Structures are given as C-alpha cells and as structure tokens.
Amino acid sequence: MSDDNLFKRLFEQRNAPNESLLVAAQGLSLVYSFHGEDASDGAEVELSHLGAVLGKTAQEMFQSAVELGRRRLVQRRGVRRAVLPQAIANRLAARALQDIPAALIEKHLVNEAPERLLRSFSRRIGYLDGSQEARQIARSWLGVNGLLADVLNLNELGESMFRNIAPLDPDATLSALEQAVLESSDDESAKKCARYVQLLVSLAYEPEHFERSVALLAKAAIASAEGSRGSIRQNANDAAKALGSLFLIQLSGTHASLEQRESVIRSLLRSVDPAERELGLRALDAALTAWNFGPVLSFGFGARSRDFGYWPATREAVVKWFSRFLKLAEELACSDYRDAQRVRTIIADKFRGLWTGAQMYEDLERICTSIAKKVFWAEGWSAARETAYYDSNGFAADVIKNLARVEQLLQPQGTVQRVRSIVLAESGSVVGIPLVSGRNESIESAMSRLQTTAYELGVTAAGDGTALTELLPELIRTRSDQAWSFGRGLAQGAENPSNIWLQLVAQLQPVPIESATPWVFRAFLNGLHQENIVLAGAMLDDAIDNDALAQWYPVLETGIGEIHEEGLRRLLRSLELGKAPIHNYRSLEGGRVTDGLSGPDLKTLLLRISDHDEGVYVAVEILYMRLLSDGGRVSPNEFIDIGCELIGRLNITVDTGPNFAQRLQIIGRQCLIGEAGAATVREVCTKLKEAISRSDASAYGHREFLQVLFSTQPLAVLQSLCSGDAAMVKIGISVLENADLLHPHAFDVIPEEELLRWCNELPDVRYPIAAAGIAAIRQDKDGPHWTDLALKILEKSPDRVRVLQKFIRQFSLPGWDLSRAAEVQANLQLLDDFVGHPDPTLADFAKSEKSRLSQAIAEARKVRPPIYMERDEGSFE
C-alpha cells in the first residue's frame, strides 16, 4: 500500500472524503498541541489563531477537532489536544506549509501568536526536516535580524524554539552558534553556549559536523568551569562530561570516524592551554573505556532517524579501536609529555576493563613493559593485581600466565617503590596494596597484613636516610590509611627520632599548610610515646609555639592517647595562644582521649574552649562523646554542672540543625535534670524571648533546640516562656505556636497536679496551651476515647471552645493523604460527647465542627488531586 493510500485509509476510516475536515486537520497539525476547549474570539485563543491561517472561525476548528477525536486522530490531555499519531500530524503539517501562504502563518502563528502556541509551532516544524518550507522558516529565524538570530541572548521561549528547529538545518544551527561564540573575544559567550550542551551532542552525530560541535563544547566547558581555567577535572560540568561521552567506543551518539576522534584528542592534548589538555585527557579516558558504558545525554533529534552512534560490529573493529588509542596513550605515557603521569593514571584505571573486557593482552603487556622502563608505576601494579584477584577464575591458563608476568614486571622494588605503592597509595584497596594472598583469605586478615607491612616499611625507612629524604615531601601530604602504621614504625625504628622529627617539620616550611596533613606526624608521636614519653612530650610542647605545627597541635596531642595532667596543661596553653583554629579541638571528641580527665579538669578544658568564638559548639561535641564513653571518673553531678554551663552559653539566636540537636538530646537527658537543669532551661528560654524582643531572633526556627528543652524540663519551659509582662508572654506563646513544640504530647511527662496548678495561675492563656500539649485521645478495643486529663482541662478552662479546637488538631485531619480517613471519621464521633453539654457555646461548636469535618472528608474523597491533571497536560507541551 502506498503512503498516500495508507494515509487516506487512516484519515477517512470508511467515512466519505471531507475536504474541509482535511484542511482543518492540516491547520491543527501545524502545532504540537493546542488548547481545545476555548472556542471564543479572544486574542489568546489558540483555536482562533489556527483557524485564521485557514480562513475558519475558532468554532469551526473546535468542531473539526471534535470530529477528528471521534476518529481517534486527536487525543486529549486535560484542556490540551494534539493530532496523533505523529506520522499523520507531520504529514498534514508539511502539506499545510505548502498550501498556506507564508505571510498568514507568520502573522497568526508567529508575530501575533500567544507564547505557548508559538513554542508549539516551533516544536512541530522541528519534526519536518524533509519540508523545504519548514527549513526556510528556520533559516529566516536564524538569519540576520531573524527571530532567533541572537542565539546566546534568547529568553526561555527563544531557547526552546531554537532547540526545536535545530534538526531542520544542522549546518545553519552550528553556524549560528559558531558566529556567536568563536568570533567573540571573551568567555561570556562561551559560558552562555553551555546551555546548548544537549543540542551540540546531537549535532555531533554526523561526521561532517563532529569537529565543529566538539570545538563549541570545548569552549563552553572551559568557560563554564568554576575557578581557574584548568579546573575542569575538579568541576566536571555538563559540557565536559558530554564532550567526553562522544569518544566512547559505543553509546557515543556520533558516527565520527576513529581517525576524526583521534585527531581531536591529539589536538586537545597538544594545546598550551591546560584546560584544553584536561578535556583531551577526559576524551582519552573515554576512548579507553571498555565496559560499564552509559550515555550522558539522550540521542533524539527531531524526526531524524538516529541510533546510538558508532558500534563495532566485529572483534577486529574492537581491536582496531583500542589498539589505536592504546598506542596514543603509550606514546604520551612514556614520553616527556607534561601530563604523562595523568595518562599513566588513565591507563591504570582502564586496565581491568581493557584486559578482562576487551582482551587487549598483548597491547597492555607491551605498554606495561614500556612504562616500567621509564618510571615505577604503582597504579599499574595495583591494577594488574586487582584484575587477577577479581577476574582470573574466568581466564585461560595462558592469560593467567601473561597477567602474572605483567604483575611481576610492575612489582615494586626497594624501599621507596614499596612505600609509594603500599603506604602512599590512597585507594585503600587491600586487593591492590598488597593483594590478599588468595581469594579465600579474609579481608580482616589482609588488612592486618597490610598494616604490618606498612609498619615494617616505616622501620626500614627510618634506617635508610636516602630513601627517607626522597619520600618526605610525599609523606607530609598523604591521607592513606596506612600512614598510621608507617609513622609508628618510623618513630620506633629510628636511632635518632628527634632528627627525623625535625626533617618532617622542615618539610612544612615551603609547603602551604592546606596541602599538608598531620597524619604521619600524629602517628610518629604515637609510636615515640610508647618508647620515650619524655621526648614525645617535649615535641608536643614545642608544637604549641612552632609556627609550622601550632595550628595542628590539638590533633597531634590526640596521637599519644588519653590526656592527663601534662596534656591538659598543653591544651590550655594552646588555647591561650590562639594559634590553632578552634575547630581543630574537635579532634578531642574521638578515640576516648578525654577519658583520663577528672570532672573538674574536663570542665576547665571545655569552658576554656567555649570561651572562643564558636567554641561552645566544639565543647558540646566533646562532652557528648565523653558522656557516651565515660568510665566513671566524672560523677553525675559534675556532668550536670558542665552540661548546664555549656547549654547556657549556646547562642540561642542561631538555628540548631538536626545532627547537633541529637547530641543536645543526649546531653539534656543526663545534664538538664533537677533544679540546676530547670534553672538553666528557664534562663535559656528567657534569653530567647529577650532576643526576639530586640529582633535579634525570630519566633520561628527554634523547634529542634526547644524540643531538647521540652524533653527534659517541660514545666520549666512553660514557666519561662509564659511568664513576665504581657509583651513577653505574647512572645513566649508565639514561640510555642510557631515552633509546633506541643506535638507529640510534650506535656504528658508533667505530673497532672503540677500542670493544672500552672494552668490555674493564668487560666485564660494557659489551659489552651496545655490542651495542645497533652494526649487528648486514647485508643482501646472499643475505639477512641477522651483521656481523663483532657476532660479535666476542658472543664476547668474558661474558654472551652479554644481547648476543643486544640483537641481536634489531634484527629489526623485528612489532607493529601486519605488513607486515614476512616480513623478520622471514628474520632469525629468523640464530638458527640459534647453535643448535650451544659455550655451551649461548646455544644454548638462540637455539632458544627462534626458536620463541617464530615463534609470535608466526603469532598476530599471525591476530588481528584490537580497534580494528575498537570502531569497529563505536560505531555502535550
């Protein structure tokens, strides 16, 4: 059946030919979707604009849309309508562009059209790449003084239209972007181009557009990277990710040839601009990826037929691809290329995939041999061993033999190489540094051997001055888990530990402190302390004043274990000098290092820390950990004293996050007790009210902190917030209401007599507050009932209606979740208890509330949430 006959059958569907309906269908197909329910003559009525290009009224277009709906050629989503399927809509739209004068289309669908209709029109013509008329519209929009000529300064509507029409003429689209970006002398244009990343990836599909698209992506990636121009690796923006994806062996979304892609990579890697070289390394990394593929972006592009890009069909094609890029990588890795180390890292990262997935055995063995002749390659050794550990069960005997030969070739030799590959490697993989001895060895056993090996290397390095001198610059920067064992071995293997310590400290002089780490120093002190307590103490004494070590001093102190009298003296001296940032004292919270301090000593230390800006938060963290680990050296009363003092020093105007609030909960349960705890809580609440009265704080945002106070001293909170003059009482009540503190049932822990006594002091105000904070309803096998305390509060309150309003809030009133409607309906029966109440105001309120809420539940069950309508309409935008 010919296309014409098929279209005729689908359109007419055994109906008589109807030329008027066909013409209307063509007009309705000019847009991707249209508002199908408004047939008035308003300026924003979409049917009116669509009819105008045909000489029809909005009512006529409406009737035609209805008839097309009966034929299932128009579908609806809410108020939106669309001619479907797309094959029919595209055919009708292409015919309409031929039959309707361009001037009418420009007037009614472009110049005078509502924004949504204009967007929809651009989306439709974007599917008509076979239409000469559609391509002409796109060229006119992109041409000089055209609607979309200034492609980098379009508003949201213009950007959407530009993306929609791009498939009509990819060459013109690229030219428009090139003219805007490549001819500009600043980075601002390139930054704006980053918004078209998906479009540029789509344009790179055709080989003839590949280099041009990549050039624009590179410009956008470099300009939009944060920080310096060379920071793309750290700030992997969308443009850089998309550029890299174009160099995958599959799922790249482009049919650019192998030669084209290699040429682009070489060009980027040869650049004098470090940012461009970074992009080249990213592309090389992608080209050597042999498994775990995944496209960065989608591949659709209008109605153009697209696949996933180049896909090797044979083993020979796979070998050709990886051989070519491995040869390039080898050339760079074994040369004096400025980024040769990065290239070697890429090869190591891809080794397992290339060996196990792509089976590039000979190429990899050759490369490993070449690199081993050039430099020691710890990453390659680790990669070879990981491959053997995880994958060797599936290898043939000759492949296992080849891999073993590679691993032996790369194996570290001598102290320096072994330290770099075992201690300084930051991967933390027991498989790679060193490998577990066999697949049956447990991880615990392997970790123990790893740490033992690291310790032994420390002892060896201590006696090898040449090796240690070479390693020192790297040791002060390491963050590896093995640094602890190595540092201990370094101290305990040294004939003259003071000399090695001085060498370590000397390395800090030319190095920015943010580039160094204290881990080896801390480990060294730990090892030394076990051998020579006096010398370790002297080094810590020196660290307090030493310009290079002073800011690390609190961290170094924790290296020797529990803090006692001498450690406390040093910490207080350090706090007095103020050379160490206060946040570094948080190191005292771990490792139970404060367990050796008595109650008075712990209080002295924590209060001195809290004297500094933000120090109270550090002190609270330390106290929290001491409470969890205390072995009995601090009495409960001493903890109460310390905790109350620190909580009283907290800045009440600062919001308390959930993590810190959790710590305060633990402290509060053990410290905010008794009269001392109550006094502290009253003091804190008073400070909050005073801060609010001065506008230094608001009544909002203190829920987490006040929940801590409520959980320990609820009556003290009420006494403080609801006392004072009228203005202060008003502030206190607003804090309670805005912080939503009275749920769940915060006042249930207060003895009934005390709560009622407190309410009676100011009944008009306090009974409604109490009503909000107690459990008003109890459940048993017979259903819901009022609690005895709820009924007492209701009867004693001067304003029973306000109290009942607070109780009703506990009914779990239905909102978006209707799953508990039955429970709420059952709770409403409780209101019947008050229908015959002697207080007529209460009786009338209970009756009206039950009626109102019953109706609300019924309506909520019937109403369809509007979010579904919005979702359905969105599919036709």
Topology:
Elements: H1 3-12, H2 19-29, E1 34-35, H3 46-52, H4 58-70, E2 74-77, E3 80-83, H5 86-99, H6 102-111, H7 115-125, H8 132-142, H9 156-165, H10 170-181, H11 188-193, H12 197-203, H13 207-224, H14 238-245, H15 258-269, H16 274-287, H17 315-333, H18 340-357, H19 361-374, H20 378-391, H21 397-410, H22 414-423, H23 443-462, H24 465-475, H25 483-492, H26 497-506, H27 519-531, H28 533-545, H29 553-558, H30 565-577, H31 599-610, H32 615-629, H33 636-649, H34 658-671, H35 674-693, H36 703-712, H37 714-721, H38 726-739, H39 752-761, H40 763-773, E4 777-780, E5 783-786, H41 788-796, H42 800-808, H43 821-828, H44 840-862, H45 866-874
Helix pairs in contact: 2-4, 2-5, 3-4, 7-9, 10-13, 12-13, 13-14, 14-16, 15-16, 17-18, 17-19, 18-20, 19-21, 20-21, 22-23, 22-24, 23-25, 25-27, 27-28, 28-30, 30-31, 31-32, 31-33, 32-33, 32-34, 33-34, 33-35, 34-36, 35-37, 35-38, 36-37, 39-40, 40-41, 40-42, 41-42
